[in-house]
Amino acid sequence: MNTRLSLSRRPAALAAISAALVLLASSGCSRQLPSQYFRLLSFGTLVELEIIGVDQKKAREAYQSLQEDFDFMHRTWHAWEPGPLGRVNQAIAAGRAIAAPPSVLPLIRISQDLARKSDYLFDPGIGKLVELWGFHNSDLKPHAPPSAEAIAAIVGQHPSIRDVHLDGFHLSCDNPAVKLDFGAIGKGYGIDRAIERLKALGITDAIVNAGGDLRAIGSRAGNPWRIAIRDPDGGGIFALLSVTGDESVFTSGNYERNFTWEGKFFHHIIDPRTGYPAVGTASVTVLHPDATTADAAATALFVAGPKDWYRIARQMGIKFVLLIDTEGEAYMNPAMQKRVELQKPVPKIHVSKPL
Ligand code: ADP
Ligand code: MG
Fold first, then answer.
1. Which atom of ligand 1 lies closest to the CA of 79?
2. Per residue in 103-140, pLDDT tens?
3. CATH class for domain 1-355?
4. Which of 275, 264, 207, 166 shows the shortest CA–CA distance to 35?
5. What residues are neighbours of ligand 2 (ion), with CB under 5 Å?
6. Which ligand 1 atom minimizes the distance to the CA of 251?
7. β-pairing, 349-351 with 330-332?
8. Is residue 282 within 8 Å of residue 347, measured between CB atoms?
9. DSSP state of 236
């Protein structure tokens, strides 16, 4: 899906881009310093790795190491295939306390903190709702949405990651309606671990891009990394951005996983307060140093929508936001406005107070 392409030469390929993509730098700098490019499949998406300025042997070593890490993370945190997270969810459903697998613990801790800061609009405890809507399925097909009664039955039990209690390794949960699903944060957490690994290998200039969600370190041989933000309406490019240093760009969009049933459109980002797909937002792009926070925040701000994104962004410590609503109008803070290079006419731009 997520294709590297040169914008000017291949406009027809734009329909194939994912949420964001890294543009090939047009300068010749990559000729002076070697640029190594690898791809692997993880988190249900194509993960692209570009490393600058190291020899082939080192780049390959980094790639192999990341491949092992991603495979491990994918297995460990999968929301519906058996594995450590599945065992935790079985225990929660049965009301049993367990010794939490060390591979899952940090993700629970970080998620609890970010969920609290998001007023629980990002809440990985709502796995039963995600499952009810049919999104725990690798092969998503159009299907009837769940009944209002079935949704209300789960929402009425207020499942939330705040119901999970940790005491060292000891995990207990007082709400059997909780089912953990780290779909909104796992990719970000995984990308942070990947960047840590690259830094430990002495790599200073690289980008890890998982289906348009990415973190970049250093530069592209002295040039910024150029990132395109997808237009949620039609799949062209909405805006371009330059990124240097250590920064993550994450987008949550209603186009990622969805289905249409009897003319109605249903997407995969659920409002924990209603149990239905969040209304009003088409996509949210967030920039933040760490990918874990950026991932959780993009989901939270999507649910918060045009009215509440500013407050939640402040609470989560986010400094750059671009939200596109379902009418195609854009919302952003002044610092983001300075950075985005819009690529299409936008019916209305709402600029908030500084974040
Ligand atoms: P993507 O992974 O497509 O970029 P997100 O990061 O927004 O999108 O994650 C969406 C996934 O997170 C859903 O598929 C579901 O598994 C889970 N999810 C849906 N709604 C929420 C929510 N309000 N809070 C936490 N996780 C959610
Ligand atoms: Mg997310």
1. 16
2. 999 999 999 999 999 999 999 999 999 999 999 988 89
3. alpha beta
4. 207
5. 184, 295, 298-299
6. 4
7. parallel
8. no
9. S
Q: Which atom of ligand 1 is nearest to the CA of 19?
A: 4
252 lines ligand 1 (CB under 6 A): yes
Q: Is the CB of 270 under 6 A from ligand 1?
A: yes
0.85 exceeded by pTM:
yes
Sequential DSSP letters for 126-185: BHHHHHHTT-S-SS----PPPPHHHHHHHHTT---GGGEEEETTEEEES-TT-B---TTT
Token pair recorded at residue 46: 């194509």
Per residue in 194-219, pLDDT (tens digit) is 999 999 999 999 999 999 999 999 99
Residue 308 structure tokens = 């509440």
SS3 220: strand
Q: How far is CA 270 from CA 148, 241, 283, in A?
A: 14, 28, 13
Structure tokens belonging to residue 47: 């993960």
283 C-beta closer than 6 A to ligand 1: no
- The first and second tokens of residue 238, run together, are 């909405």
| Ligand 1 pocket check for 189: Cβ under 6 Å | no
